[in-house]
Amino acid sequence: MAMSLGFHIVFAEIGIAMPLLMVLAEWRWRRTGDETYLKLAKRWAKGSAVLFAVGAVSGTVLSFELGLLWPRFMKFAGPIIGIPFSLEGFAFFTEAIFLGVYLYGWEKISARAHLASGVIVALSGAASAVFVVMVNAWMNTPTGITVVDGQITELDPIAGMLNPSTLQQVVHMLIAAYAATALAVAGLHAAILRRKGEVVFHRRAMMIALAVGVPAAILQPLSGDLSARVVAKWQPIKLAALEGHFETQAGAPLRIGGIPDANAMTTRYAIEIPRGLSLLAFHDPNAVVIGLKKFSRDYWPPLVPVHFAFQIMVGLGTIMALVGVWTAVTHFRRRDIVANRKLLLALAIITPFGFIATEAGWTVTEVGRQPWVVNGLVKTADAVTPMTGLFYPMLLFTLLYVGLTAIVVAVMRSIVSEPTA
Amino acid sequence: MSAFFASLGLPEVIAGLIVVALNAYVLTGGADFGGGVWDLLARGQNREEQRRHIADSLAPIWEANHVWLIVVVVMLFTAFPAAFQQIAIVLHIPLTIMLIGIVLRGSAFVFRSYGAWTKAARDRWSATFAVASVVTPVVLGISIGALATGDVGAAAERIEKGGVSFADGFVKPWLGVFPVATGLFALALFAFLAAVYLAYGAKTDDLREAFRKRALGAAVAVAVLAALALFTSYREAPRVAGGVTGSAWALPLHVLTAIAAIGAIVALVKRSYGAARVTAAAQVTFILWGWVLSQYPFVVPDTLTIRDSVAPRATLTLLFIGLAVGTLILAPALRYLYGIFAVQPEEVAGRNRGERRRKAKERTKS
Q1: Would the CB atoms of A94 and B315 count as touching at under 8 Å?
Q2: How many domains in chain B?
Q3: Interface contacts A/B by beta carbons within 8 Å
Q4: Which residue of B has its CA nearest to A61?
Q5: Domain membership of residue B198 as a residue range
Q6: Is the pTM of this model over 0.90?
Q7: Is B287 within the bounds of a domain?
Q8: Element (H, E) at A250
Q9: Does residue B273 belong to any structural domain of this protein?
Q10: A6-41 tens-digit pLDDT
């Protein structure tokens, strides 16, 4: 399941952001009449088609797998998370319909209708993400549900959808999708521009992608700050695990790097920034941050992976934001980005960073919640299917996904590197 | 009958809507699987043309068609979580195979269309697409058949008590003669639907004739497998047999199914493809509702009824509102999609029935 999701999340990200790039390219074409933009729109539409299809089938797998692997979780949570999932279903349906119209309707409908269907694809893709992330947010901070002796006594799906984590998680995920995808696209074209010199097609492609990716990458640390504060308030144990923070203290330091040791209850080799954590998590350098020791060890998430994943996410996100600032400064000083070989190199290097950061961030939110599947309500171990031999389907799906990923990469490469003339 | 209508409330309405979504999936997504079957079975001089026609017909709509299945699953776990739990536990293996089939079919189809492949690689994608199109409906049918026997519910209860062997809990409930017969029946039905649709949408007479013959062949397979499924149901799925043959609505539904089936064959023989399409779709619809009504009010026979497994009222109400609003958006969108890619009258040579008959006669003479 984790693996299916890990696979799906990247394809979903591309599926959210790619249609936006495609619509922007088509819009530029309609405005300027520059045929390069049309070629670009068609190229990106192809990419969207492949990724949407793979996203669609992997999404189907997920909707079943929820039940196949976690039947007891679904029996418990179905009535509440089913509502956002149903809405997601409709958003997804809309996306599928208008992607069909967009891809195969170039000659069949009016220019305006065609552009409009592209816009609908981009919007409904984003809406799907909103609804799905609502579910995840609910698993972190379940509201709208009252449980007495294992029985649900009160249920309010709307309160569940609007739980305390929803806003920050949705914002964080959407920005992540745009930043990761657009900077990856920009990076691919930057690499080609660096190798081949000026090619109008690749210049246009990179500039559109940067227009989406750079603002997103610069905004993401702000949204991350918001996320950290929500986690600090509602899931103190998760924050403590992210930071490898054992002692409850006022003016807690921010740790960069380091290895948390659960037995010795300390984090070694970290660079500590005094009062940093208190400042970031509560915007008050003297705030008290609860440490892991406050909680029974039975409720600690696995510390090492969570701490590392968090460092990776923050580190890569910071690099992306810095390269974003560099790009923006270059552009607004009216320098040509394509002429700046160092910047092109930096953009090419950070191509995969957004996706790696996404996987890390997903590890943070999911592993950081263990041992719970629904925070404080259902333990992961109690939710799993009673069927034995789960190793085999997992192995099978892993192989399938590894194979699919390889093929998707191959198809995308052939789409990106197709002759541009 | 009036007692039946008096028993209907919001849970039953939602259950009915799930079946409507399943019905839409079978009529659209099911036919897409059938298209894969005919890709696999493409024979004759124009076999590449047949394959192209199949691919062109599927490309713009298969993803939207496929979403119906997601809608069914999501509605099921939202509205009837307890039933979903039992189904997901016991049918883990066939549903997993189905998922793998869905992934392989969909991805092979787009990879084939979008990559720059050698002929050999393209053929491999085609083979993957076609084989997955055959396997997936069979396991879907097996799952439905297994559910209908009542073995799924019984196994789920035994698993809950503990001490059930792997084979008894997770294999035997679905690996029976009746589920497998149902699986093959589903495959034949989907292939039949696809052939009828493909004949209707064909742009040349050769293609149309090719798919017409295939549709007639599939109709025979449907009849044989229906008989087999009914025969095995007496022993393995008495509820289906009883419901399909004994209850108040059994006779009218039987009559309707038979009329539709005969109508479809007559229409095919007479080459009126529009009528064939409607009657074939009606036939499949009646069969589906026949099964559903035979197990009413059970969601999982014989353990969970609609009322046993239903979600809290707040969820149902919201789901219903969501469905209503969603339908208002989706219905025109779907019409738009199908409208754009529907066959244009001027594209079809000899759509006029008289002209078509004349042409067919000329062909038989020559």
Answers
A1: no
A2: 1
A3: 211
A4: B99
A5: 10-237+295-365
A6: no
A7: no
A8: strand A249-250
A9: no
A10: 677 887 888 888 889 999 989 989 888 888 888 888
